[in-house]
Amino acid sequence: MSVRIHAIAKETDKTSKEIIDILAGRGYEIKSASSTIDNITAQSLIEELQAVAKNSVAEKATSEDDSVEVLATSAAGKKVPFVKSKEDLEQEREEKEKAAAANNEHASLSADSEKVVADDAESNAVDSYRSNRPIDR
C-alpha cells in the first residue's frame, strides 16, 4: 500500500514542497504532491517529523540553538537518521534474503542429518530384533 505526499504533509503540519525536498534529498524520485511512497517509509518519515517537531519545541524552551537535527541513536551509540534511503532499504532486503537462504540451507542439512540418524536407529532396531530371534531350522 502507498501513501500520497500531500497526506504526509497534512499529518505532519508541513507543506508538500518541504516533504518533497526531504525525500528528494534522500534519493526518492518524487515529482508532485500526488506522488506516493511505500507505507513503511511514509510511517517512518511521519514519526521522524513528529519527533523533530516535539524536540524542536523542547529545544526552543531550553536553548537558543535552532540548528539541532534530531537523530536516533543505534545500539552501538552511532547516530543514524530515522528514515532509510532507497539504497539502505535495498541493502537491508538483500541481507535478509541472504540470511533466509542460509537458514534454509542449514535447515535442509539439519533435516537430512536427522533422517540419517532415524534411518540408522531403524536399522539398528531391525538388526537387534534379528539377532535376538531364535533361528528356525
- The SSE string, one letter per element, is EHHEHEEH
What is the count of DSSP helices, taking H or I runs of 4+ residues? 4
The CATH topology of the largest domain is given as: Arc Repressor Mutant, subunit A
Q: Strand order of the main beta sheet, please? A: 1-2
Tell me the number of strands: 4
Report on this model:
The protein has 137 residues and is mainly alpha-helical. The chain has two domains: 1-82, Arc Repressor Mutant, subunit A (Orthogonal Bundle); 85-137. The protein is 65% helix and 7% strand. The strands form two sheets. Strands 1-2 form a two-stranded antiparallel sheet. The chain has a two-stranded antiparallel sheet with strand order 3-4. Strand 3 (72-73) and strand 4 (79-80) form a beta hairpin. The N and C termini lie far apart (77 Å). Residues 64-70 have low confidence and may be disordered.
